[in-house]
């Protein structure tokens, strides 16, 4: 299971330290002086043409208090840049909260307007598709030429949560920044690992054990559709404590073997309840079951457990009211009927071993958040876990804790990634294989009738399998039937031309993750046909390719990242009683290769049938591949927009 986290930090300009003390800025309404040169800035001299830039930023981490104090000052250059006045501060509800928000806007003439203090919780969806909960607020009177600044405190519970990391790069260019971290008093020595810091820049250890770092001219991370996880692009520093018994001059292999043995011991201690496992197994599988059938039954058994990791965080009061007893062993899990995601996968390992299989836990880097670099020796990169099982000569990678994913289907972010398989002997670094295109399919069928005004109406049938179905179930697990229908309605409207009306008639197989999700839709598409004298011109594809928007720009900064291999199949039937088919576009095929596309149209009388197939097999492409990918999707759009020409029956007779 995966629990992605993301943090944003703010810092200040060091050049102004000659005018202000070199101490942390207070959480109150005390602000740094505004330099006249900054007020007069018309553009970013390091990156001309940008809409805004971060002038100063500061982040002060206090581990003992589990808090991070932030300060951000931004110069606005253009009207587009005024959107920076809409501030979004991500946080993990239940673990942290955002406190002491202050802000103000400074106009070129010197007028200052203070923020009134009203902030709201909102789910934000970025262009990359990433979603997060944020405290949001809008600074007042933001115009080109002004400076905005704000500060806040991210507060966690010192008993349960701490955030000891610096995220240096942000969406905007950062001119100057200062970081500090104060470790737990009396704890072990604090160390760090860094990702992407410029040569000559490093955290400096202070006499009290804290660290301070100054940094300048950090390029921003441009938000683009289909980009790799932001954490993989960030310049950042992460801090950690080294236990006193850590061996000196340890190699990477020795480190991971030591960690693997430790994790293996924890797993073995949890599942070392042979009696409880044997009893449960006797009620789950039959001695005559083939190996894969036994694994499937064990998988299904574990997925029937209440998955606590998929539930919303509870308040302290709610936790006391429910009074869930802790699971210390697999016997507790089987008795209580609930478990965390990790405990569910441990339980599967225990049952599989009891059934005679070789099974082990595998910790992997979820690639929707980050990648795994063994040389960094960072266990936090392995924030997802799955199970490896061998049955005869066949190996399986499974995730029973992924409640909406059927047997043998891993969540996409746990495929095509690296991880560590743990054993009594240590750890083996391995690569999880990618999924197949057939593991994520969408089939769209449409039967549409065209009237003389160009209105197309009829029935759509949609079928989602594999990743496509599992992700729907996971994303909308809290929705009732009405909410699910609304979600599918919104998706179909994205596919159809603007102005289309959609009514989701039914959603079938929602509760059974082994079956495709089947959706029936009634739709009306106005102006789908364009009258031209005695003829009607109709686009061959009723469904628009929503990926095309990612390739509109001529330039690209980030690599192109398709989350997982997939296939898309369309079968659209068009009929018009008042018209007959005059011409249809020729068949077209683009491929073969990791990405391929084909479309063909056949006709008979007043009916046409369009068959379309799009396959995306590759996942990550360098920026140098962008022109070719842009050309590919441009061709797809062009062929999807090709026209079927209908001719009015009366016109046909006259001819």
Explain this structure.
With 655 residues, this protein is α+β, with helices and mostly antiparallel strands. The chain has three domains: 14-241, Immunoglobulin-like, CATH 2.60.40.3140; 252-433, C8orf32 fold (Roll), CATH 3.10.620.30; 438-654, Jelly Rolls. 18% of the residues lie in helices and 35% in strands. The chain has eleven helices and 35 strands. β6 (120-125) and β7 (131-138) form a beta hairpin. α2 packs across α7 and α4 (291-303) runs antiparallel to α7. The longest helix is centred in the middle third of the chain and has 20 residues, at 252-271. The radius of gyration is 29 Å and the shape is globular. Mean pLDDT is 90; it is low at 1-27.
Topology:
Layout: H1 36-40, E1 52-62, E2 67-76, E3 86-90, E4 96-106, E5 112-114, E6 120-125, E7 131-138, E8 147-156, E9 165-167, E10 174-182, E11 190-195, E12 204-205, E13 211-218, E14 236-241, H2 252-271, H3 274-282, H4 291-303, E15 306-307, H5 316-322, H6 330-336, E16 338-339, H7 341-354, E17 358-364, E18 384-391, E19 394-398, E20 418-423, E21 426-431, E22 440-450, E23 456-466, H8 467-475, H9 481-495, E24 501-508, E25 517-525, E26 529-532, E27 535-539, E28 560-561, E29 566-575, E30 579-583, E31 588-590, E32 595-604, E33 607-616, E34 620-621, H10 626-640, E35 643-648, H11 649-654
Parallel strand pairs: 1-10, 15-16, 22-29
Antiparallel strand pairs: 1-2, 2-8, 3-7, 4-5, 4-8, 6-7, 9-14, 10-13, 11-14, 12-13, 17-18, 17-20, 18-19, 20-21, 22-23, 23-25, 24-25, 26-27, 27-35, 28-34, 29-33, 30-35, 31-32, 32-33
């Amino acid at each position: 299971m995966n629990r992605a986290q993301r943090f944003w930090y703010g810092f200040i300009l060091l050049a102004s330290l000659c005018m202000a003390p070199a101490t942390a800025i207070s959480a109150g309404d005390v602000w740094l002086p505004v330099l006249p040169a900054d007020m007069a800035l018309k553009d970013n001299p390091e990156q001309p043409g940008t809409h805004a830039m971060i002038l100063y930023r500061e982040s002060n981490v206090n581990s003992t208090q589990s808090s991070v104090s932030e300060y951000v000052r931004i110069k606005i250059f253009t009207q587009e840049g005024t959107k920076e006045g809409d501030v979004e501060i991500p946080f993990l509800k239940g673990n942290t909260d955002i406190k002491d928000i202050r802000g103000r806007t400074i106009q070129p003439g010197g007028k200052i307007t203070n923020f009134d203090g009203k902030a709201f919780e909102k789910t934000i969806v970025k262009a990359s598709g990433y979603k997060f909960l944020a405290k949001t607020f809008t600074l007042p009177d933001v115009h080109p030429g002004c400076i905005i600044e704000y500060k806040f405190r991210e507060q966690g519970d010192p008993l349960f949560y701490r955030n000891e990391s610096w995220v240096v790069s942000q969406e905007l260019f950062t001119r100057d920044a200062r970081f500090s971290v104060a470790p737990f008093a009396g704890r072990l020595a604090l160390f760090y690992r860094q990702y992407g810091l410029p040569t000559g820049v490093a955290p400096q250890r202070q006499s009290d054990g804290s660290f301070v770092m100054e940094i300048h001219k950090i390029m921003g991370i441009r938000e683009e559709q289909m980009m790799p996880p932001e954490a993989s692009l960030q310049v950042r520093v992460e801090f950690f404590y080294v236990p006193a018994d850590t061996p000196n001059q340890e190699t990477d292999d020795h480190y991971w073997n030591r960690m693997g043995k430790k994790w293996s011991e924890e797993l073995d201690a949890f599942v070392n309840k042979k009696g409880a496992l044997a009893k449960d197994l006797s009620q789950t599988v039959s001695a005559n079951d083939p190996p894969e059938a036994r694994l499937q039954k064990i998988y299904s058994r574990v997925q029937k457990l209440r998955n606590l990791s998929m539930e919303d965080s509870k308040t302290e009061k709610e936790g006391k009211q429910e009074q869930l007893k802790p699971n210390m062993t697999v016997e507790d899990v089987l008795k209580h009927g609930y478990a965390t995601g990790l405990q569910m996968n441990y339980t599967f390992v225990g049952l599989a071993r009891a059934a005679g299989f070789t099974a082990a836990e595998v910790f992997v880097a979820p690639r929707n958040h980050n990648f795994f670099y063994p040389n960094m020796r960072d266990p936090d990169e392995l924030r997802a876990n799955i199970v490896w099982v061998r049955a005869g000569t066949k190996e399986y990678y499974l995730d029973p804790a992924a409640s909406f994913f059927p047997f043998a289907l891993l969540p996409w972010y746990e495929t095509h990634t690296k991880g560590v398989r743990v054993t009594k002997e240590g750890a083996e670094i391995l690569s999880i294989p990618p999924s197949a295109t057939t593991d994520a399919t969408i089939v769209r069928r449409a039967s549409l009738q065209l009237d003389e005004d160009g209105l197309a109406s009829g029935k759509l049938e949609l079928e989602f399998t594999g990743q496509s179905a599992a992700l729907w179930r996971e994303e909308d697990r809290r929705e009732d039937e009405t909410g699910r229908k609304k979600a599918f309605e919104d998706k179909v409207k994205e596919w159809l031309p603007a102005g289309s009306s959609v009514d989701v008639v039914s959603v079938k197989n929602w509760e059974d993750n082994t079956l495709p999700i089947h959706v029936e839709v009634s739709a009306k598409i106005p102006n789908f046909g364009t009258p031209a004298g005695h003829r009607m011109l109709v686009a061959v594809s009723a469904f628009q390719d929503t990926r095309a928007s990612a390739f509109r720009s001529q330039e690209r900064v980030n690599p192109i990242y398709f989350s997982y291999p997939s296939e898309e199949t369309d079968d659209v039937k068009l009929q018009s009683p008042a018209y007959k088919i005059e011409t249809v576009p020729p068949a077209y095929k683009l491929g073969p290769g990791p990405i391929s596309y084909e479309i063909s149209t056949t006709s008979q009388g007043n009916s046409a049938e369009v068959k379309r197939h799009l396959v995306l097999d590759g996942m990550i492409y360098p920026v140098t591949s962008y022109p070719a990918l842009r050309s590919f999707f441009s061709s797809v759009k062009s062929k999807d927009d090709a026209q079927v020409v209908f001719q009015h029956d009366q016109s046909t007779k006259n001819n």
